[in-house]
Amino acid sequence: xxxxxxxxxVLAAAAATPAAAVTATVSPGAxxxxxxETEFLVLYAEGADPVAARSAIEAAGGxxxxxxxxxxxxxxxxxxxxxxxxxxxxxxxxxxARDRVIGAAPGxxxxxxxxxxxxxxxxxxxxHAVEKEGHRDxxxxxxxxxxxxxxxxxxxDLQWDMRQIDTAGAHRVERGDRRVLVGVIDTGIDxxxxxxxxxxxxxxxxxxxxxxxxxxxxxxxxxxxxxxxDRSCHDPADVDENDHGTHVAATIAAPINGLGIAGxxxxxxxxxxxxxxxxxxxxxRPVVDALTYAADIGVDVVNMSLFVDPWQFNCLDHPAxxxxxxxxxxxxxxxxxxxxxxxxxxxxxxxxxxxNDGFDLTKENVDRGSPNFASVPGRTPRTRTVPPSCQVMxxxxxxxxxxxxxxxxxxxxxxxxxxxxxxxxxxxxGDAYDTPTGDLDRTRAVLAAYPKALAERRGELNPDGTxxxxxxxxxxxxxxxxxxxxxxxxxxxxxxxxxxxxxLIVSRYGKPDRxxxxxxxxxxxVERIMKSTAVKxxxxxxxxxxxxxxxxxxxGGVTVVETTHTCEGxxxxxxxYGAGLVNARNAVRARL
Length: 592
Hints:
Blueprint: E1 22-24, H1 30-34, E2 38-44, H2 50-59, E3 62-68, E4 73-78, H3 83-87, E5 93-101, H4 160-164, H5 167-171, E6 181-185, E7 206-207, H6 244-253, E8 269-274, H7 284-297, E9 301-304, H8 323-345, E10 349-353, E11 365-370, E12 382-386, E13 400-406, E14 425-428, E15 446-450, H9 452-457, E16 472-476, E17 482-488, H10 491-509, E18 511-512, E19 519-520, H11 523-533, E20 544-552, E21 558-566, H12 584-588
Helix pairs in contact: 6-10, 7-8, 10-11
């Protein structure tokens, strides 16, 4: 467990949003169409009477449009410019912070996803990379050697990540129980993807986001709402217009169905708990709502490959921050931790990615990307030197299993953040530069599902449907059903491997949940099994890894980039691998 606070969650079981979690709501698009310019988030004091807290908000001129009763977090439209100041010092209120711009949608045509600005939440191998060894005709299935223990999925030979954690050995014992629910808090899941659909629950899935047309500076974020099917700025809960969540979901639970790939736990049920915008931002309210919903419906495991925007590091008293900015960061820390605590109490195992900046989270770092969203005009990122007390949410939250990333050789990936006491376990996340020469090889990233619609919009397919870029792979089954997959890398890809192992553990050792149905297993037990069965990996010789990357340039040349990361700790527990590299086979053969 972490020594500091922060985290996020997942979903599963029950069709309606529980009244305990959300007690006052408006229709998803109402705020966008209202013409209001901003919303505020108000966090009630611990134990405060919500009726009294709402009265205090109204007395300050605010209107509650949504309330998460499980956490005590209200979304409020202010009636005057002095709203926040009027609540200062009120014993019923713990915090007030500006949320985001919600104004009316502009009448400009919506940009294609490839043209929109995209927040980078995953390391992407360059799309202009030259094919390395293993080039294949992506429209046809090449000959593949048979798996040593029974049939393998058609693209299994491309899944080095699954071999690294021995999923084949695990699947001889446990493939995952359909009653186990894994929530994916991400940018959405393409529920129609042929290699996801058999394990996807539309009934339980929810979208907690509302599209943001533009930011406070008028810069496009998600695009105008007029392009949505019902013009509501609220996407269905079975689409992914970013691609990130679909990749994560397939890594966890792509079924064994004779098509494409298999996930770590191919027999469990996937629940889309969308908290990410089309553009890749993850804001506080959707993350909190997703976590509490997951807890209320009986989700067993939740994957959080994200950090809560707009601050990468949340500091309580940084001298470079204004009082309003400090209040905003404190709100993130307190509200997310309350949601994590609530999910943990309700039996949710929480898994989060460590981050892709190569930071040692136990040391002083330089944050150059916060705040990353213009909720007020002119707000731009600035450089802050941040101490270890500043927190990355949710990876540094209590009750969260934080995951670093490894490459194909087993070394910590060059981008993966780390730190002795900050990392719980390691898992495959991919490293396209983990090659003998340091040259880029995209097949050393992680292959998982990719929405066909996005491949088409981004111009990555030929007229006959075959991919025309090396980062996309197509596979078709005997009936002519085809599906698409892409290579991505990042700690976002590592966390779902650990979440899949957690789902196998619940499937193997969980007991029937007489109250809510399905299976249940104490998340502390899940974490103990995962850590105790992980393969111990010591720090590299000399206590550091030097990464030399030969980065391709548009002119055909290469730029050599060299970085060194220091590993602290012992073979049993260290800052690169935590308690070790997760191992699916060991986890389902544990002696309890």
